[in-house]
Amino acid sequence: MRFFAPAALVLSLTATSALAFDIDSLSEAERSAFRDEVRAYLLDNPEVIMEAVAILEQRREAQQANNDLALVADNKDRLFNDGYSWEGGNPDGDITLVEFIDYRCGYCRKAHDEVAELIETDGNIRFIVKEYPILGEASEQSARYAIAVKQLLGAESYKLAHDALIKMRGDVTAKSLTKLSKGLGFDAEALLAHMNSHEVTTEIRTTRALALDMGITGTPSFVMEDEMLRGYLPLEGMRAIVEEKRG
């Protein structure tokens, strides 16, 4: 004999008072019967579990999106006007896109040409790059080299180094960076000396602190206007979000 609402109704989590009951008031036999009923229902209707998981994931994503909106708002100046990050695209664009990159990240490399195409074909996007080396020593040295180029030689030279580093294969060493410098017409000795300077270290630490404050643990990670885009997003997906922001 059963003393409670059917498991299907219990699992629906309706909040009506007619279904409300105190499970602690059940006897051990009633609890055992209740568990058996729930188990039997789930075995007969496993899709209910998947539906519940899907709803939970939707709620989690919605909460993450709300949290990210707050994080972007709280860190707006650090994201968009830090005074040191390289800026490309249209400086007066109606959309600002920020990318946290690691030169040794496969998805950053995959995104590189697509982001470049987005900015070039759109023509009205302000683009900011933040060096965020998280994949080991080679990542660190690549970022230090790029920042050294920017600090010593300026924005145009940085863009050349940035594009070369994202495609660079093999070990990142003083020898390989010297070869890269010579190919770009840079003073290798000066750049190698500046890589470990206080100025370069400060920039990396400042960006890393921002990323950690925003819960960014992987690359590429993007901020488009007020929205966080965590992870790689194909070109058409980015175009769709741009249009959504403008709309």
Description:
The chain is α+β, with helices and mostly antiparallel strands and 247 residues long. 60% of the residues lie in helices and 11% in strands. The protein contains 11 helices and 5 strands, in the order ααααββαβαααααββα. It has helices spanning 7-11, 28-44, 47-74, 76-80, 106-122, 137-153, 155-167, 174-184, 188-194, 198-213, 235-246; strands spanning 86-89, 95-101, 125-131, 221-224, 227-230. The chain has a 5-stranded mixed beta sheet with strand order 1-3-2-4-5, sandwiched between helices. α5 (106-122) links the parallel β2 (95-101) and β3 (125-131). α6 packs antiparallel against α7 and α6 packs across α10. The longest helix has 28 residues, at 47-74. The radius of gyration is 26 Å and the shape is elongated. Residues 1-19 have low confidence and may be disordered.
Short description:
The protein is of the alpha+beta class and 247 residues long. The chain has helices at 7-11, 28-44, 47-74, 76-80, 106-122, 137-153, 155-167, 174-184, 188-194, 198-213, 235-246; strands spanning 86-89, 95-101, 125-131, 221-224, 227-230.
